[in-house]
TrEMBL record:
Secretion signal span: none
Name this polypeptide is given: Glycoside hydrolase family 5 domain-containing protein
Top-level taxon of the source organism: Bacteria
GO molecular function, one term: hydrolase activity, hydrolyzing O-glycosyl compounds
């Protein structure tokens, strides 16, 4: 039984599904797992976190959740609309505890992404029309109550899993999302609706929902991504699903996380591996042009918590130090490169995951005769890698002009049989699988490559790459990257 079959077999058990442990670390992290901790800040609302204030509205608990969310430099929290009543059309509501929790978040300067569940928050009546009426009544009352306070709603949660009251079909998802969408737009056109987030990046229910018209009644296509689902060959899957149907909608991830059990090694190694998962996830989000993501989770759910019982872990600190909007720096490789904060090696070697080093990448300084300018450059030893193995360094470049084009240039030196490619990735938030590239044509001499990139948000990911040749002595050097 392969991993995909196991996932399908375990779909009824969310905890077991997420704790599946692949045979090798590489199968989780694909081309690499990265020590990626950029300097803190500049997150704005790009990242957020799930916490337990959907079902726990005790003031002390809410305040501690807020404190840790802000300490993590996050500005968004996901909250369920639990405990307010209104289960059936015409039923009464009790808003006091929920009002107090929401006001606490808003007064702290945090935004709320609110879950409206057609299965958990209203009575799933055997009469389908009545079930829809129940949900319409609930959604309208919630949106009217929090008009001007909450402007982002997530419809249900993992409809392809059964949480005790059945799964939801694609048509049911579309019908309930349509109710929320039309209600929202009639109350406040600025309210945004995220489609029912499926349990995983490759869920077949997403395909069915798209065919049934979910994109027509959603502002964002909702997804969840755990463990190996953030790998290079998988995180781009939803974009290809949309493209095959001629649909262009921004993608959002409302749950994302990892646990130590995903990793091999000692307790120390698995803790660092988990920490690096979140770092790698941050880079992958930008590489694939995802609109935003919420992490899972703050204080509960045992192994999933980044601060169980509000006690911060290494992963907590990793998230706190993330910054995904840093301007380009060390473009000439003259400064020491910290692989946790600068140019990040990207390859398929397991050693990099646990030890933070790539056998194919070296950052050279003080080699005036070997550099294009100055004495620094990055060297990709592709002769040591198996044929066609991707070898590269990447970095997120933020603070770019939204809606404009930028020119990205770099100097490259190719020695041996390989070629080298300059790429821009993640620049199109409606087609995160797109890339723009320029490939070398010259051997044994410096060549300038340049690409023009349209920036749809405020970032792109630059890749300086090559492919393995298996021929000892082959290498590629990159130097003097520029953005105009």
């Amino acid at each position: 039984m392969n991993l995909h079959q196991k996932i399908q077999h375990l779909a009824q058990n969310k905890s077991l599904l997420r704790s599946l442990k692949p045979k090798t670390i590489a199968s989780i992290f694909v081309a690499s797992a990265l020590l990626y901790t950029l300097p803190a800040r500049a997150l704005t609302s790009y990242l957020g976190i799930n916490n337990g204030t959907g079902y726990n509205t005790e003031p002390e608990y809410v305040d501690r959740s807020i404190q840790h969310t802000k300490d993590l430099n996050l500005e968004v929290a996901r909250m369920g609309m639990d405990g307010v009543g209104g289960f059936t059309e015409g039923a009464g509501f009790n808003w006091s505890a929920r009002d107090a929790a929401i006001d606490r978040y808003l007064n702290a300067g945090l935004k709320i992404h609110l879950v409206l569940s057609a299965r958990m928050h209203v009575n799933r009546d055997g009469n389908y029309e009545q079930w829809k009426a129940n949900f319409r009544y609930f959604a309208r009352n919630v949106m009217m109550r929090y008009k001007g306070k909450i402007s982002y709603y997530i419809i249900d949660n993992e409809p392809d899993l059964d949480y005790g009251n059945g799964k939801m079909s694609a048509q049911e998802c579309v019908d309930m999302t349509r109710i929320a969408y039309e209600t929202a737009k009639s109350i406040d056109p600025n309210i945004k609706i995220e489609s029912p987030p499926v349990m995983g990046i490759e869920s077949g229910l997403l395909d069915e929902m798209l065919d049934a018209g979910i994109a027509e009644v959603s502002d964002y296509i909702g997804l969840h991504a755990y463990g190996g689902q953030i790998s290079e060959n998988r995180l781009g899957h939803p974009w290809r699903v949309l493209e095959s149907r001629g649909i262009r909608k921004p993608l959002a991830i409302s749950e994302s996380g990892s646990i130590n059990e995903y990793c091999n090694g000692s307790q120390f190694e698995t803790e660092d591996c988990r920490r690096r998962w979140f770092a790698y996830f941050g880079q992958q989000l930008k590489r694939f042009g995802y609109d935003h993501a919420l992490l899972f989770d703050l204080d509960g759910h045992d192994s999933w918590a980044v601060a169980p019982g509000f006690n911060p872990t290494k992963t907590y600190q990793q998230i706190k130090d993330l910054s995904l909007n840093e301007a380009l720096s060390n473009a000439d490789f003259e400064s020491d490169n910290n692989v946790e904060t600068g140019w990040i090696p990207f390859d398929s070697n397991d050693v990099w995951i646990l030890e933070g080093a790539s056998p194919y990448v070296s950052f050279v300084r003080n080699d005036n005769s070997g550099a294009h300018g100055g004495g620094g450059y990055v060297k990709l030893n592709n002769g040591d890698a198996s044929p066609d193995t991707p070898v590269s360094v990447r970095r997120i470049v933020g603070q770019l002009p939204k809606g404009q084009k930028v020119k990205i240039g770099a100097w490259v030196y190719v020695n041996g049989k390989a070629s080298a490619t300059l790429k821009a990735l993640g620049y199109d938030y409606r087609n995160g699988d797109a890339e723009i590239s320029a490939t070398s044509t010259k051997k044994n001499g410096w060549e300038y490559l340049e690409i023009e990139v349209p920036i749809s948000r405020y970032w792109t990911v630059i890749e300086l790459g090559t492919s393995g040749t298996g021929n000892s002595g082959d290498y590629v050097k990159w130097d003097d990257v520029s953005i105009d």
